[in-house]
Amino acid sequence: MFPQPATTRRLPTPRIFTLACLLLPAIACARQPVTPASTTSLAARLDRRAPALLGEHGVASVGVALIEDGRVTLAKVYGQQAPGVPATDATLFNLASLTKPVTAEIILRLASAGALSLDEPMARYWVDPDIATDPRRERLTARIALNHQSGFPNWRTDGGGGRLAFRFDPGSAFGYSGEGYDYVGRFVEKRVGRDFESLAQQYVLGPVGMTNTSYSRRGWMRDRLAIPMDTGGRWAQPQVSDSGHWSGANNLMTTIGDYAKFVVSVMNGDGLTKAMLAGRRLPAAGPHPPFACKLEPPMPCPRALNFALGWVRFEYERGPVFAFLGMNDRPGGERTAVYFDPARKRGVVVLTNGMNNGQRLMLDVLDVVDPGSPVVAFLRQRG
Fold first, then answer.
1. Quick one: 356 exposed, middle or buried, by C-beta within 10 A (0-12, 13-18, 19+)?
2. Taking CA 39 as the corner, what is the angle to CA 37 and CA 45, rounded to the nearest 5 degrees?
3. Neighbour-count burial of 39, counting CB atoms closer than 10 A to its CB (0-12 exposed, 13-18 middle, 19+ buried)
4. Of 35, 231, 237, 365, which cross-links 356 as Cys (Cβ 3.0–4.6 Å)?
């Protein structure tokens, strides 16, 4: 059902896995409007439980954000940013694959502004030298790449000897691919004639107010990076791309507050035409991964799981929920998660700097944020 672990693009040791399998908590139940008292109570519960959960699972730190009624009502950070250094609201987490929704949003806003088309052949402006003689390059479009139908492996180091190659014809099958997101980013640079990071700043980071977010190393990151730690208590090195060497699929650095603001902006449809917003919320045309849910009773199960432009879409009777989950399984690593219901303007973000037990920690944190949530039941049955 889900993509298998795959080696990252730049380092031979790290591996990335994305479980894009989240759904909105208590979607079948009516929600009461958020009140200051309820937010205060939730913050108090997190203050009591989060430090204990970090110790129980051997994870160094966690950031949690809750969005209610289209606004960020809670953003908290717990644990250690580095040995002996407390994590704070300014701590920078590696997003792992939660980078992909940001990359997709940049491209959708560029398309909404008329700077490019999602359906024009990318080969007119960009062809990776590794596939320069493969005629299938002509079939690649931004839409196909954003929907994980490019035909590329997750990373070119996945059994390809370090060379990019097609595994299937573009658009003919589903295949989760970080390479596809990097490819479409290179296309955008050539198409618009500007570097991708400056476009990110103009179309998303700046308008949203994400002043603590970057695809690559910046001077203001000094002494703010969340250092990954494994369950044995061993600290590793944070994975931050050198300045200018960005990836559209992995390693965006941000704070919990910045990413929560991004989710609000996405829910609002900022920077998109009405047609683009409607298109982003639809399931992608063409093939999708197989899906099954074995929960009993089946109430927490979505009716379908489909990829959309930059997100995974869960289909429910009351409407779709959009989600993504990321993992870097290099030493220490990260686990990250986001999901939101655009109709109800509600969502949750969880960021950690520990891969080994990060999934269990995130589920237990979600139990605190959303007691009885079917998202937790669904993820727990996935293992």
1. buried
2. 105
3. middle
4. 231
Read off the tokens for 369.
Answer: 């944020």
The separation between CA 245 and the C-alpha centre of its own chain, rounded to angstroms, equals 19
Q: Are 121 and 171 in contact (CB under 8 A)?
A: no
Calculated CA dihedral for residues 22, 25, 30, 35, nearest 10 degrees: -120
Question: CB burial class (10 A; 0-12, 13-18, 19+) of residue 1?
Answer: exposed
Backbone angles phi, psi at 137, to 5 degrees: -60, -30
Longest pairwise C-alpha distance within the chain: 63
3-state secondary structure of 105: helix
Full pLDDT tens readout for the chain, 383 residues = 333 333 344 333 333 334 333 333 333 333 444 456 588 899 999 999 999 999 999 999 999 999 999 999 999 999 999 999 999 999 999 999 999 999 999 999 999 999 999 999 999 999 999 999 999 999 999 999 999 999 999 999 997 688 999 999 999 999 999 999 999 999 999 999 999 999 999 999 999 999 999 999 999 999 999 999 988 899 999 999 888 899 999 999 999 999 999 999 999 999 999 999 999 999 999 888 888 888 777 777 888 889 999 999 988 888 888 999 899 888 889 999 999 999 999 999 999 999 888 889 999 998 898 776 666 677 777 76
- Written as six digits, the tokens of 333 are 């690593």
What are the CA-CA distances from residue 276 to residues 67, 77, 252, 348 (Å)?
23, 34, 24, 24
Can you say whether the dihedral through the CA atoms of 338, 339, 342, 346 is positive or negative? negative
Spatial distance between the Cα atoms of 251 and 187, rounded to a whole number of angstroms? 20
Euclidean distance between CA atoms 367 and 273, whole angstroms? 36
In 3D, which of 309, 242, 119, 100 has the Cα closest to residue 185?
Answer: 100
- Burial of residue 125 (CB within 10 Å: 0-12, 13-18, 19+) is middle
> Tokens 């500007």 appear where?
194
Region of residue 228 (left: phi > 0; alpha: psi -120 to 50; beta: else): beta
- Residue 253 CA, distance from chain mean position: 12
Class of domain 6-382: alpha beta
How far apart are alpha carbons 234 and 229 in whole angstroms?
A: 6
The one-letter amino acid code at 312 reads V
